[in-house]
Amino acid sequence: MHELSIARSIIGAVHEEASRQGATSVLELELVVGPLSGVEIPSLEFGLQVLSRGSVLEHAALHITSPKAEGRCLDCATCFGLEFHYAECPSCGSFRTEVLSGRELKISSIVIE
C-alpha cells in the first residue's frame, strides 16, 4: 500500500509550505490524481486522514480531482480516451500510442490560515 508513503510525502510538503508561510492551520488541500497514476484514491484519502491527525492538516477539507486519461496514436495522430497505459487506437488499430494525460499526482492548491 504505497498510498501511505505518498500521503506522508504530501503531508510533508504541505507542512513545509505552511511553515514557510507562518500558517497555523490548513483549511483546504486540493490534489490532482490521474487514473493512470497507480494511486488508489480511497487508500490515499485514508492515509491522509490517519497521518494528518494532530497536525496543521487535521481539519483541512480534502478535494481530489481525477482528470480524464487521454492518449494519442503515434501512427495516425488520433487522440482518444484511455482506460489503461497501453491501448489500441480506435481509428487505425495501432498499439503505438502515448499517454498525454492521466498520470498526474500533484498538489494543486493549499488554503492556509
UniProtKB/TrEMBL annotation:
Biological process (GO), any one: protein maturation
Record carries keyword Metal-binding: yes
Residues reported in the UniProt entry to bind Zn(2+): 73, 76, 89, 92
Domain of life: Bacteria
Name of a matching Pfam family: HypA
MF annotations from Gene Ontology: nickel cation binding; zinc ion binding
InterPro entries xref list: HypA/HybF
Keyword annotations from UniProtKB, A to Z: Metal-binding, Nickel, Zinc
Positions that bind Ni(2+): 2
Protein task: Involved in the maturation of [NiFe] hydrogenases. Required for nickel insertion into the metal center of the hydrogenase.
PANTHER family: HYDROGENASE MATURATION FACTOR HYPA (PTHR34535)
Listed NCBIfam families: hypA (TIGR00100)
Family (UniProt): Belongs to the HypA/HybF family.
Protein's name according to its UniProt entry: Hydrogenase maturation factor HypA
